[in-house]
Specification:
This protein is of the alpha/beta class and 377 residues long. Helices cover 44% and strands 18% of the residues. Helix 6 runs parallel beside helix 11.
Length: 377
């Protein structure tokens, strides 16, 4: 295990205490003691470990062993992943299993996997016995830098993505960058899209660092990957601390996402990875901003340059496999009208004013949005 361990702390108003995001290489072997130090209960209650079925035999097994080694009684289960399984049916099955296993109100529920595993398991933890301790062990870059931090949990509805859920903060997030070594390349790229997003909305230095370190990131350099996760978690943490329930500033984290969610829904949630949709959504949002004269064309050019250097799609035909067809633009706009961020029937968009700053507009017209979509065709 690497000796380099970084920590980012979130202190939230209205909470008895905040929590830490612990980042390092090989730290999953310390999971038992980390969970005990954050939520307590060792040797007194049973812990539930919910694992992405794709990593059950690797990181799920390691997580369970690490907890048992420090005295925890553990019950483990696997869940199918994919947007088609991110639903209330999966939640119900997990709740039935954990209730059958007689978990108590002090029993931690641990999520081992990517963003879908964390989102679903977090909603289960929020619902079980009206709320039990929740622990995030993200095994994808996307989950480490974004989904595991901030307490958003939930599932999809036929009406759209993440429309059913709750805010339920974890007691601790354990981000072991060693897990990224088993991550498929396409999944790694998905996480990089959120890193680019953080650079655009808050941190020009991070944006430039991503371009400079693109090669090291693709090599999964241990020091660089820990730094990558730490810098991005710090941005997400600061935004969440300022606006836990998304009343204002936290909406900035949705840069590119209104477009992205429409793409995902219109392609059946099974053709595009979330990060690929976010990459394309950021391009469309930046094009909209340039057309509105909120920023100059250099912002879009720089965005395209960093996305391409990191291997992310900037046209829908760039998506791996090249088989994703551009959905009907009128249909995309209609899907955007059902986005959970719509207020008073108006589509709200987060748009860049520069690299490092964004604004929210709520007067986007359908024809403007349609023109912005054209850039990814």
């Amino acid at each position: 295990m690497s000796e380099q361990i970084e920590k980012v702390r979130l202190d939230l108003s209205g909470q008895d205490h905040g929590y830490e995001v612990v980042i390092g290489y090989g730290i999953l072997e310390k999971l038992g003691e980390l969970v005990e130090s954050s939520v307590g209960g060792q040797g007194k209650v049973k812990a539930g470990v919910v694992c992405d079925e794709n990593v059950v035999g690797t990181w799920g097994e390691k997580a369970g062993e690490a907890m048992r080694a420090t005295g925890w009684e553990v019950t483990s289960g696997a869940m199918k992943v994919g947007e088609e399984f991110k639903n209330l049916e999966t939640v119900g099955m997990l709740l039935d299993w954990l209730l059958e296993e007689k978990l108590e109100r002090k029993s931690p529920v641990v999520a081992v996997g990517g963003g879908i595993t964390g989102d679903v398991t977090g909603y289960v933890a929020a619902s079980l016995l009206r709320g039990v301790p929740f622990v995030q062990c993200p095994t994808t870059l996307l989950a480490m830098v974004d989904a595991s931090v901030g307490g958003k949990t939930g599932v999809n509805s036929k009406w759209g993505k993440n429309l059913i859920g709750a805010f339920h903060q974890p007691g601790i997030v354990v981000a072991d960058t060693q897990t990224l070594e088993t991550l498929p390349r396409r999944e790694l790229l998905c996480g990089l899209a959120e890193c680019v997003k953080h650079g655009v909305i808050r941190d020009e230095a991070l944006f430039d660092w991503l371009l400079a370190e693109a090669e090291s990131i693709h090599r999964l350099d241990k020091t660089v990957m820990i730094e990558l996760v730490k810098r991005n978690v710090a941005i997400k943490a600061k935004v969440v601390m300022n606006d836990e329930k998304e009343a204002g500033e936290r909406a900035h984290l949705n840069f590119g996402h209104t477009f992205a969610h429409a793409l995902e829904a219109s392609t059946g949630y099974n053709q595009l990875k979330h990060g690929e949709a976010v990459s394309l959504g950021m391009v469309a949002a930046a094009e909209f901003a340039v057309a509105r004269r909120l920023c100059d064309g250099v912002v879009l050019e720089r965005l395209l340059a960093v996305l391409e250097a990191l291997g992310l799609p900037v046209k829908i035909g760039d998506v791996e496999g090249g088989a994703v067809a551009m959905p009907d633009i009128d249909a995309l706009v209609e899907v955007m009208r059902h986005d959970k961020k719509v207020e008073d029937g108006k589509i709200r968009l987060v748009l860049p004013t520069k690299i490092g700053g964004v604004v929210i507009v709520d007067d986007a017209e359908a024809d403007e949005i349609s023109k912005a979509w054209e850039i990814i065709r």
